[in-house]
């Protein structure tokens, strides 16, 4: 066997899992795609986010909370190991509202969830004036916000960089430019790549993002995932304008204002569109009118990796025991959990987190 | 929203010639150009400047009025001062003009976006006082501004042209520090046949060199280890010449080692590009009519591969013949008949290129800069960082962009893209084609969120 | 910062007043703003937002974004603007300009 674990996918999810396994002394080989691959890891919005997640599945809210709680320690360790600082700010985040009705309706749902979580859901509602004290640039159209104290944001590209460096530092083998065509299990796992190479491994983790939709069924998974496009904007670097992040906008550590994101069902089309950009710009200006004068410097479309219910999938193959599917939409938020907690599940130790609700049984075969 | 048979992006020689011809052939035509007056960079502000300083700039420049006049007299909609920032399917072109967003529709797109100076990352090239030679020329053409005691650094005919113009303006450069070596000249002699066929160019070149010599401008050829020094501004150029370290004090440096196609718009449309070893640049993959592999997208002029102003003019017209045929305004027979003299003229104009490319290759130290040299001016990413990212798995520039921000600034990779590709290709032992280039997306140029948002309202009004 | 500019105007024409960083400059009307500022002795147009290093026009053709200045609260490329009477311009705000 060349390696204990082969990880198919060298994005945030794959590298986080690889990092965790390496920390336990496992040998790991990561198979990463090429420069043109769809990479949610470099197109995402960078939130480490709790609120609004798992409204119908409290375990998902909890799993996100668990990850958010250990994120800072994870980021620090990466920073110390690599000298590559991973900027993270966890002083709360907003859900901004333009109408009292939506604000009230959301609070009602949060209260339900809070009860299911045993009260661990620290948020407060800020009216316009209270919000204005926190965010002097907030616009008059914003009636209020839900400030959730477990929310925050990170620099996802620095996270990717630090993970890529630290996985190598710990002896992880990362093979770039690999497109996996097939996975077989006659004797251990044999992973074939389009360039003709084969890697043999004791266990396999399929963390290939949208690539899992094609490979998954070959490995006995349903892998019912689909792309959903999110267009994202970023402005020139600006003086401090936004204090805490929201789903509408955040100011990144380098100074630019990142504005997101559309939700479009357009298949594998990751282009940006003028109507998409204009709609996002209009919403951001409604929230922060000063942004009208800011120059948009870049925009991109990234493809979210969504399961039918939007929740992660953690599944061991019944056809190929030792093969695991790990896929989620929130690779940044869950990075710490994937690095610190998921390896116990892969290794089947007594400390394994309970991920029962995230298996594929929930997807009925139609 | 106005709709045209063809929209031409850029009003330089290719765009102007193409527009006038398209209009003559009965195509409804729009030209969008970000400058206020037609001319492009080569004929920048020619209508205004030719009468004022035509003597200094020379006949090759004032000749541009022929094209601006034809454009003016045509039925073309010249949308001036229009910064195009997105071109989308079915060809919806979004642009900003006088602080407002606007759009037009076109059945076909002709990109005549010209050239950019080849990036020349050498130590100190971000200091105030360091500019491209093209910038020096634009200062003179458009504004009648000349730098006193400037030093010209690099290689190529444009360097001699600007030096000669500075001599004529009475402010000759303090020195020319040239990077081509004797071996380059020998290699170039293989293309002597072409050079002789392109004799008018050679004769002009020799005349310029004579002007420079008469003005006693010192020339240092085969210079290496060139570096610009200064504390917060340009104070001197240092370099090695014939084994000795030299230092020339100056406040202004003009850099040049060739120009490369400005492919931002073409790449944003998904046009395939390939590496052209002779030009040391990516060029779009086009058929003999300038048609790209994206249906309805055509490219002419330097953006299609460097050929200069005259070539641009001819390819502009040639491409329009194909567009007119495509739009059923011209029979195939007429298209071919009209193309024949253009193709002959093109062959004449292009004859000198192999000689020039070989005689004045890019400065090798600027293609593989030292580790501490900044390659991305906007985000200040060094060559050493790019090499470091290659070591942690970056095969292409989109990965180094994510890791180190090179190419993320407002210039959107225009002045680092080729360098980053070259560094990664070298570090990974791959070709430039295998390494690839930045994925270019809208906005092609920054646009304010206010302008964008205003277009949202327009879109909504239109659908209501 | 004035008078000693290495950039010389080889012709003269009508001039207008503009305000740069709170000071009045007399610039050739209708000329390219970046060229006019250089000739007026402006050495630093902006500071790079990453390192704070001083920057000035580099390409003069709207491609490099090193001549960014602030006009009416918006960062603009000086080389893409023309001089007109009463312009109020400045360096982009400290972190601004990219």
The N- and C-terminal alpha carbons of chain B lie at a distance of 16 Å
Helix content of chain A: 25-40%
| Distance linking N and C termini of chain A | 38 Å
Structural class of chain B: alpha/beta
Could you outline the blueprint of secondary structure elements for this entry?
The complex is a heterotrimer of chains A (366), B (464) and C (98).
Chain A: E1 3-8, H1 12-23, E2 28-31, E3 47-48, H2 58-82, E4 88-89, E5 93-97, H3 100-116, E6 123-127, H4 128-134, E7 144-148, E8 152-154, H5 156-169, E9 173-175, E10 180-184, E11 189-193, E12 198-206, H6 212-215, E13 226-237, E14 249-251, E15 256-259, H7 274-287, E16 295-306, E17 313-316, E18 323-327, H8 335-340, H9 342-347
Parallel strand pairs in A: 1-2, 1-12, 2-9, 12-18
Antiparallel strand pairs in A: 3-8, 4-8, 5-7, 6-7, 10-11, 11-12, 13-15, 13-16, 14-15, 17-18
Helix pairs in contact in A: 1-5, 2-5
Chain B: E1 3-9, H1 13-24, E2 29-33, H2 46-57, H3 59-62, H4 65-73, E3 77-80, E4 82-88, E5 92-97, E6 100-111, E7 115-117, E8 130-132, H5 133-143, E9 145-147, E10 151-154, H6 157-168, E11 175-178, H7 182-189, H8 192-197, H9 199-214, E12 219-220, E13 224-229, E14 236-241, E15 244-249, E16 253-256, E17 259-261, H10 264-268, E18 273-276, E19 281-284, E20 297-299, H11 309-326, H12 332-350, H13 353-359, H14 364-367, E21 374-376, E22 381-382, H15 383-391, H16 397-404, H17 417-428, H18 432-435, E23 447-448, H19 449-463
Parallel strand pairs in B: 1-2, 1-6, 2-3, 6-20, 8-16, 10-11, 10-16, 11-12
Antiparallel strand pairs in B: 4-5, 5-6, 7-17, 13-14, 14-15, 18-19, 21-22
Chain C: E1 7-9, E2 15-20, E3 23-28, H1 33-39, E4 46-47, E5 54-55, E6 68-71, E7 74-77, E8 88-90
Parallel strand pairs in C: 2-8
Antiparallel strand pairs in C: 2-3, 4-5, 6-7, 6-8
């Amino acid at each position: 066997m060349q390696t204990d674990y082969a990880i198919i996918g060298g994005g945030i999810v794959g590298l986080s899992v690889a990092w965790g396994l390496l920390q336990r002394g496992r040998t790991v080989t990561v198979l990463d795609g090429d420069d043109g691959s769809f990479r949610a890891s470099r197109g995402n919005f960078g939130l480490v986010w709790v609120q609004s997640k798992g409204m119908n599945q409290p375990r998902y809210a909890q799993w996100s909370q668990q990850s958010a709680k250990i994120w800072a320690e994870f980021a620090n360790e990466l920073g110390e190991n690599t000298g590559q600082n991973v900027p993270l700010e966890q002083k709360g985040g907003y859900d901004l509202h333009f109408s009292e009705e939506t604000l009230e309706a959301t609070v009602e749902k949060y209260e339900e969830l809070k009860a299911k979580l045993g009260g661990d859901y620290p948020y407060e509602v800020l009216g316009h004036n209270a919000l204005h004290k926190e965010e002097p640039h907030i616009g008059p159209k914003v009636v209020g916000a839900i400030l959730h104290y477990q929310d925050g944001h990170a620099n996802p590209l620095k996270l990717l960089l630090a993970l890529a460096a630290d996985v190598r530092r710990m002896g992880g083998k990362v093979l770039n430019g690999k497109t996996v065509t097939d996975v077989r299990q006659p004797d251990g796992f044999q992973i074939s790549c389009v360039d003709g190479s084969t890697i043999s491994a004791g266990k396999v983790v399929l963390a290939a993002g949208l690539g899992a939709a094609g490979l998954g069924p070959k490995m006995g998974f349903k892998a019912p995932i689909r792309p959903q496009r999110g267009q994202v904007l970023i402005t020139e670097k600006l003086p401090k304008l936004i204090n805490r992040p929201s789903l509408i906008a955040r100011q990144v550590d380098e100074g630019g204002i990142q504005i997101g994101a559309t939700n479009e069902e357009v298949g594998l089309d990751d282009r940006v569109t003028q109507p998409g950009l204009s709609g996002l710009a209009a919403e951001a200006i409604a929230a922060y009118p000063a942004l009208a004068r800011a120059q948009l410097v870049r925009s991109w479309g990234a493809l979210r990796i969504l399961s039918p219910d939007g929740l992660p999938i953690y599944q061991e193959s019944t056809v190929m025991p030792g093969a695991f599917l790990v896929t989620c939409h929130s690779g940044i938020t869950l990075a710490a959990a994937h690095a610190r907690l998921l390896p116990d599940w892969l290794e089947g130790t007594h400390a394994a987190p309970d991920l029962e609700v995230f298996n594929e049984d929930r997807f009925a075969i139609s | 929203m106005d709709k045209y048979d063809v929209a031409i992006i850029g009003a330089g020689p290719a765009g102007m010639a193409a527009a006038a011809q398209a209009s003559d052939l009965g195509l409804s035509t729009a030209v969008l150009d970000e400058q206020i007056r037609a001319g492009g960079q080569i004929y920048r502000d020619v209508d205004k400047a030719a009468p004022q300083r035509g003597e200094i700039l020379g006949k090759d420049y004032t000749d541009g009025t022929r094209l601006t006049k034809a454009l003016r007299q045509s039925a073309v909609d010249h949308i001036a001062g229009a910064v195009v920032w997105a071109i989308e399917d079915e060809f919806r072109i979004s642009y900003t003009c006088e602080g407002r967003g606007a759009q037009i529709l076109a059945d076909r797109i002709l990109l005549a976006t010209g050239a950019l100076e080849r990036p020349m990352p050498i130590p100190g090239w971000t200091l105030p006082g360091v500019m491209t030679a093209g910038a020096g020329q634009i200062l003179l053409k458009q504004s009648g501004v000349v730098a006193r005691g400037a030093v010209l650094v690099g290689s190529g005919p444009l360097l001699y042209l600007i030096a000669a113009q500075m001599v004529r303006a009475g402010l000759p450069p303090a020195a020319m520090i040239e990077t081509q070596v004797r071996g380059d000249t020998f290699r170039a002699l293989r293309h002597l046949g072409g050079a002789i066929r392109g004799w008018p160019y050679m004769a002009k070149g020799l005349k310029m060199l004579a002007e420079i010599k008469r003005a006693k401008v010192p020339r240092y050829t085969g210079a290496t280890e060139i570096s610009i020094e200064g504390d917060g501004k340009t104070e001197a150029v240092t370099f090695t010449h014939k084994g000795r370290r030299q230092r020339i004090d100056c406040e202004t440096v003009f850099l040049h080692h060739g120009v490369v196609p400005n492919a931002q718009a073409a790449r944003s449309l998904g046009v395939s590009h390939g590496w052209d070893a002779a030009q040391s640049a990516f060029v779009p993959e086009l058929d003999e009519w300038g048609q790209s592999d994206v249906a309805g997208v055509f490219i002419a002029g330097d953006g299609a591969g460097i050929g200069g102003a005259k070539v641009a003019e001819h390819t502009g017209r040639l491409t329009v013949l194909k567009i007119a045929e495509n739009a059923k305004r011209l029979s195939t027979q007429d298209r071919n008949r009209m193309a024949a003299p253009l193709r002959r003229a093109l062959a004449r104009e292009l004859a000198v290129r192999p000689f020039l490319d070989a005689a004045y290759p890019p400065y090798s130290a600027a293609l593989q800069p030292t580790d501490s040299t900044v390659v991305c001016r906007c985000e200040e990413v060094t060559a050493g960082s790019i090499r470091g990212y290659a070591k942690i798995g970056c095969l292409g520039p989109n990965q180094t962009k994510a890791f180190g921000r090179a190419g993320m600034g407002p210039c959107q990779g225009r002045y680092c893209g080729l360098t980053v590709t070259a560094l990664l290709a070298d570090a990974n032992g791959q070709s430039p084609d295998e390494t690839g280039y930045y994925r270019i997306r809208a906005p092609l140029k920054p646009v304010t969120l206010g302008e964008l948002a205003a277009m949202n309202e327009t879109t909504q009004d239109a659908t209501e | 910062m004035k008078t000693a500019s290495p950039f010389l105007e080889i012709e003269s024409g009508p001039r207008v007043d503009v305000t740069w960083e709170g000071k009045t400059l007399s610039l050739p009307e209708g000329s390219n703003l970046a060229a006019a500022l250089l000739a007026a002795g402006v050495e630093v147009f902006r500071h790079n937002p990453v390192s704070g290093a001083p920057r000035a026009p580099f390409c003069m053709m709207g491609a490099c974004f090193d001549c960014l200045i602030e006009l009416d609260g918006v960062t603009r490329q000086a080389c893409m603007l023309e001089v007109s009477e009463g312009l109020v311009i400045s360096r982009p705000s400290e972190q601004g300009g990219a």
